[in-house]
Amino acid sequence: MAKERALTLEALRVMDAIDRRGSFAAAADELGRVPSALSYTMQKLEEELDVVLFDRSGHRTKFTNVGRMLLERGRVLLEAADKLTTDAEALARGWETHLTLVTEAL
């Protein structure tokens, strides 16, 4: 059986929400979860990757350089996943993903 990996789209969504909202509590509110669940998700990710994602020395949540890089690259993956989902749903409803235009010379 394959080991469950901590680097998931959900973990990347958590990181994105923490960055946009500025705290675990505000991110948890946005995601409809409790702050401890977000902390657990981030802790598992840090353990799996053997990195520190957050500078915990201050009051405000701040990403380390590694955390910022993972967040920025993760956002690219999140956008791609969202587009993939949107395209799949559109195709399932009968919409084409490309438009072809033909013109005639006069």
Write the layout of secondary structure elements.
Layout lengths: L8 H13 L2 H8 L3 H15 L4 E2 L6 E2 L1 H28 L14
Antiparallel strand pairs: 1-2
Helix pairs in contact: 1-2, 1-4, 2-3
Q: Overall mean pLDDT score?
A: 90
Computed CA radius of gyration, to the nearest angstrom = 19 Å
Structural class: mainly alpha
Which outline best applies? elongated
What's the SSE pattern? Answer: HHHEEH
* Biggest β-sheet strands, sense, barrel: 2 strands, antiparallel
Main β-sheet, spatial strand arrangement: 1-2
Question: What fold name stands as the CATH topology?
Answer: Arc Repressor Mutant, subunit A
Share of helical residues: 55-70%
Low-confidence stretches: none
DSSP summary, beta strand count: 2
Distance between the termini: 65 Å
The top level CATH class name? Mainly Alpha
Q: How much of the residues is beta strand, in percent?
A: under 5%
What's the structural domain tally?
A: 1
Q: Which CATH architecture?
A: Orthogonal Bundle
Number of helices: 4
**CATH evolutionary superfamily:** Winged helix-like DNA-binding domain superfamily/Winged helix DNA-binding domain
Organism: Salmonella enterica subsp. enterica serovar Bovismorbificans
InterPro entries: LysR_HTH_N (IPR000847), WH-like_DNA-bd_sf (IPR036388), WH_DNA-bd_sf (IPR036390)
Domain HTH lysR-type: 7-64
GO molecular function: DNA-binding transcription factor activity; transcription cis-regulatory region binding
